[in-house]
Amino acid sequence: MAGKTNTSATFFAQKKLLGKAHTSNLKTDGEELIGSNIQAATSLIFGEEIPVNPSLDLYTIQSASNGAPGTVEYIPFILTALTGTTYDANNTNPDGGSGQDAGESSQTAGPHTYKFVFPPDYQSNSSNPNKGAGLFDNNKIVHETLGKVQLIPPFFSQNAPNPYIVKIYKDDGTGGVGDEIPLLDNIDWNVDFYNGILFLQDYNASKIPAHAKAFAYVGKMADEVISSGGGSGGSGDNSVKYLVLQATGSLSNERVISPGAGLSASDGGPGNNYSLVNTNGNYVFNEFLGAGSDSNTLFSLNHTPTAPKNVSVYVNGLLQMPSTSITSAPYQDYSLTGSNIFFTTSSKPELGSIIMANYTTNESL
User: Fold this and answer.
1) Which residue, 148, 178, 182, 333, could crosslink 172 as a Cys pair with Cβ 3.0–4.6 Å?
2) Is residue 90 part of a domain?
């Protein structure tokens, strides 16, 4: 391995920091047409967890854990030479001087940059739910998606061998995958994982890359996760509903509490209750009080009635007569004090009798 020259390494890093892909040592950053990025926008940041040790099974959608969303897919990309990147690194340098920018001597002119392209049969082989929607499509060029499709860089795993190291291959002579060109081969190649660009420092006509196998991110970007989870704007997940006190303008499935006629609201603030109170009518309760026994003459309601006259008590379906005092005449069956119902001894419900109450009250929900 000859090793990457200072010029190649510097250009690669400098252009990426300036938002450009490095496609040629003969081009300044202003002459590069393909963009690159250090992922910053939420629409370009991976929003879901990436598995540490995925298997190298082509077209298999894999997740970080059992039940988690699938986020990576191992794809056999086609590598196609990028127009305008042909030069002889052995005898030409970007300054036009006599110095060389090549690790290998005796080179010939050839393309130094290749673009990752989805295979022509991708959609028929892949189970990616996003296929055929404009990004994960047959023959789609990765850098033309402007970061919507990205390769997974190796820093997402520390396994040895690292599953996220891209593998590149020569053509086998029939259009298929041939011999691998190792990562440390003396053509000294780099991959820009953001835009799917392969750069060769040293061109070798016997080692022309034609195929690559790499993991692509197929999960949701951060902006999608935020919008569907309630953090910011977007279409969101229709299965998630939000009940809010006032419209936020950022949740697609929000419903605003709006007290109607006969209701008033009281907001206790963070950590406290939000109460709705009936101000124009009563709540009606139908309550089973229990069964009669040999000794029990006291039964209690779950709520305090609006007034004694608004209570109806039934024993085995027969309406009972109320009284104002437990000492009332025997033909009056019970008295009501607060939420307590007292039956007179003479009208005490028989063993097993079903005691029901119907009453109205006014209280907070």
Assistant:
1) 178
2) yes
